[in-house]
Amino acid sequence: MRQPSTVLRHQPGDSIQTESLDALDQQAWREYELSLSDQVTTEHASQHRGEARLLAQRMLKTTPDCVPALNLIGRIALDEGFYETAEQHLSRALDQAPEDAGCWYSMGHVALAKRQFDKAVQCFGRSLDLAPGETRAATSLVYTFARQGNIVQAFNGYRQLMRVHPEDPHVRAKLFEVAQHIQADHYQKELEQDVIAWLSLENVDHDGLSLLVASLLKHKYRLDDEDAVIDLQDLAKDTLLNLALNKLYFTQSYLESFLTLVRKQVLLHSLSSQFSDRALIKLAGAFTLQACHNEHVYAIDEHESDLVDSLRDMLETVLKQPAVQPGDCLNALLLYGMYEPLTELRGARKLANIALNHWPNWARPIVRNALLSGLMEDDLVRTIEPITPISDPVSIEVQAQYEENPYPRWLHLGYNSPTNYGRALESELEGYRAPQFFNMGTVQVLIAGAGTGRHALRVAKYFRNVEVTAIDLSARSLAYAQKMAHRYRIRNVRFLQGDLLDIDRLEQQFHVIECSGVLHHMADPEAGLAKLKGQLLPKGVMKIALYSEAARKVVVDARHWIERLGYQPNREDIRRFRNLLMNERLEGDFSALFDSRDFYSTSGCRDLLFHVQEHRFTIPQLKSLLDRHELEFLGFVTSEAIQQRFKQLTPDTPSLRDLDAWHQFEQQEPTTFSGMYQFYTQTL
Question: Can you say where the TPR repeats lie in this chain (predicted)?
Fold first, then answer.
């Protein structure tokens, strides 16, 4: 992002005239901006950087202290990962022009790359003082607050930026990213209006707003007050609630309990009024979309079950008629959809054949997402290319689970600023220097165990010059991924159905392999790792994610109860077991499960608690595993807060790569890796 210097310094007797220096400066920055475009390949980006560097060097040859040239060369060094060189050039520029906002901005990014967050705040702040209208300096300053762990300060900063630049995709994405850690401590009308505006945006990932919205609703309706009186009509007309049910996937147990009660009242009142209340029917439509998001995981009591069965019988009778119109079934369809998938109705295909424009305008998004989307996945399954037939017995069992419940379901791809994969690794991993192949030619990336494809598509869209191969056992999961690839028009990804044990059949090697949450579901995780390493190019990078024994203790306890109760991995038993946990009817403390996002959807809960195959690891086991396979540990993917806590508890540890120190840390903080050990390795 450009924030060039504004100061041009000339020495007496310079052979380059001011006009010529200006022209070189403009041409150099133009070449540099082209290097940042997400429309150019890595080679072309390198060429543009090279041209920009040559032009800047020409400026310096005749004007040794030319500030714009020093700034530009510093930015190029920063982009190429040479942070010390960048700092030297920028320090020299600031010696000449201490009031140059562009140089302070560039120096801030050097500090950010070196994880010197306090210095970055000072630099971006100085840049803003000198040029108050520069949006990028303000955005970078707020981003640094987030990296420091000052989440409230970052949220307030992004909230203000959103008011000034509501169309900026970077500001939107970062606001929602920070908001996932924010909850209201009381009801605020102004905040509610902001959130309503954010939920009304299209083509953004709203999921980060879930906690904030839940907390606003909690305080607005006094959900923690047993004596609170809530009017169903108020809920039906509540813009925040309706938008949230449509757009969000809620992951709060207290809100689920509330929504389950409201859903029942919507059902009872709609039936008793013979569907005459339009506001309630529209609220039922919002609940139908919420049920799609969580895959109908909410518990159903006996009374509701009888009524839903009657609705199903009525709908299936109507669907036997030769010509069905929306008016024949819409009301009953929306009430039924609050509880069970519309795609499972006998006659669902007949509903899908009704032209979308025959449905009321307000109902079309519901029909599209609750009916047509699922049937589209059924059709796409047949287009997924297999590597070989799956034959390993455990792989067949795991495949069956994900064919029935593709995991994880997701709603939006989200936004990232396009970047180079190697530079992203250097930002994530302390002291890491990425191999040169990230700057030359196409980077081949394998996503091994792609599931429903969100991560594979994000890699394909937001890393420059990559070709992604995504494999998974489940054709149904890959169909979901393919559907989303069509939606986002992403073409540099190939989806293949297959077993990791047959990965060598691809006859291709990769610069990067990412295998998250897969190896621990194999009969022999080590055999799977060996297969993957065989497909890695020299100095190739592998990202692995495995379950932690310490962090999964509560899951192990829950699995013992599932076995004792004889529950099976189907929707009905998942509902029953969740209901027992949420109502504290089982001996033991299972509250930690409520902090897991996976607990709040059918496929997620099945993966979390009902999986047919699971291995767990300790950090010493990880160390031995990597040693046996000659893989170098590059570091865990953790939050800045966890890294700071690690340094506090292990003050004598010189590096974040010390696995022995991480083992000691986990013994003191056993829930640290509740989201799995996620780490990078590299071939030796």
Answer: 67-100, 101-134
Q: Give the separation between CA 377 and CA 295, rounded to whole angstroms.
A: 15
Q: Would you place residue 13 in the very low, low, confident or very high pLDDT band (cuts 50, 70, 90)?
A: very low
Cβ burial, residue 181 (10 Å; 0-12/13-18/19+): middle
Q: What is the pLDDT of residues 437-475, one digit of tens each?
A: 998 889 999 999 999 999 999 999 999 889 999 999 999
The span from the CA of 602 to the CA of 133, in Å, is 48
Residue 205, phi then psi, degrees to nearest 5: -90, 100
pLDDT tens-digit readout, 238-293: 999 999 999 999 999 999 999 999 999 999 999 999 999 999 999 999 999 999 99
CA distance 429 to 7: 35
Q: Which amino acid is at 45?
A: A
What is the DSSP secondary-structure string of 201-214? -SSS-GGGGHHHHH
Question: 493 forms bridges with which residues in the sheet?
Answer: 468
Give the model's pLDDT for residue 674: 93
Complete DSSP assignment for 378-417 = HHHGGGPEESS----HHHHHHHHHHHHS-S---S------
C-alpha gyration radius of the chain: 28
Where would I find the H helices in 114-188? 117-130, 135-148, 151-164, 169-179
What are the backbone angles phi and psi of residue 651, rounded to the nearest 5°?
-65, -20
- Domain at 18-148, CATH class: mainly alpha
What pTM was computed for the model? Answer: 0.89
- CA dist., res. 571 & res. 339, Å (int): 11
The DSSP-derived string for 414-472 is -----B-HHHHHHHHSTT----GGGGSSPEEEEEES-TTSHHHHHHHHHBTTEEEEEEE
CATH 1.25.40.10 domain range(s) in the chain: 18-148
Take residue 537 and report the two structure tokens written for it. Answer: 């190019």
Q: For 385-546, which CATH class? A: alpha beta
Mean pLDDT of 194-217: 95
Confirm if 677 and 548 have CB atoms less than 8 A apart. Answer: yes
Closest CA to 490 of 525, 519, 515, 454: 454
In which residue ranges of the chain is CATH 3.40.50.150 found? 385-546
